[in-house]
Amino acid sequence: MQASISKDTGKALIKLSGRFDFNTHREFRAAYEPLVGDAETRSVVVDFSNVDYLDSSALGMLLMLRDKLGGAGKEVALSGVRGNVKQVLDIANFGKLFPIS
Predict the structure, then answer these.
(1) I need a labelling partner for 44 at 20 to 30 A (CA). Which of 3, 4, 83, 95 fits?
(2) CA distances from 93 to 27, 81, 88 (A)
(3) What is the C-alpha separation between 76 and 59, in angstroms, rounded?
(4) One-letter-per-residue 3-state SS of 35-93
(5) Taking Cα atoms as reference points, which of 22, 46, 59 lies closest to residue 101?
């Protein structure tokens, strides 16, 4: 998986591509940790449009992201969710935890 970050007026976009699984936890954490203490960032959107696979550890990483950013008063949303990724998020009821588009 690759993660790239772009920022625009209080909003950060984390664009993921490839497989989002246990082997990518360090890279994912390295992508979002600078945003936790960034006073300018008020919301974070994780873009899944180029992710073709995620597993249960990826779900855990999303929950950790939500806890860390939520504790810092920041909103988290998921976008570009489709196919197998959408199925996994639906089964896990993540729509009740995150705004998903």
Answers:
(1) 83
(2) 25, 14, 9
(3) 14
(4) HHCCCCCCEEEEEEEEEEEECHHHHHHHHHHHHHHHHCCCEEEEECCCHHHHHHHHHCC
(5) 46
Tell me the pLDDT tens digit for each residue of 13-39. 999 999 999 999 999 999 999 999 999
pLDDT of residue 20: 95
Structural domains of the chain in order of their starting residue, each with its CATH number: 2-96 (3.30.750.24)
Res. 4 pLDDT band, cuts 50 70 90: very high
Per-residue tokens: 82 = 């489709």
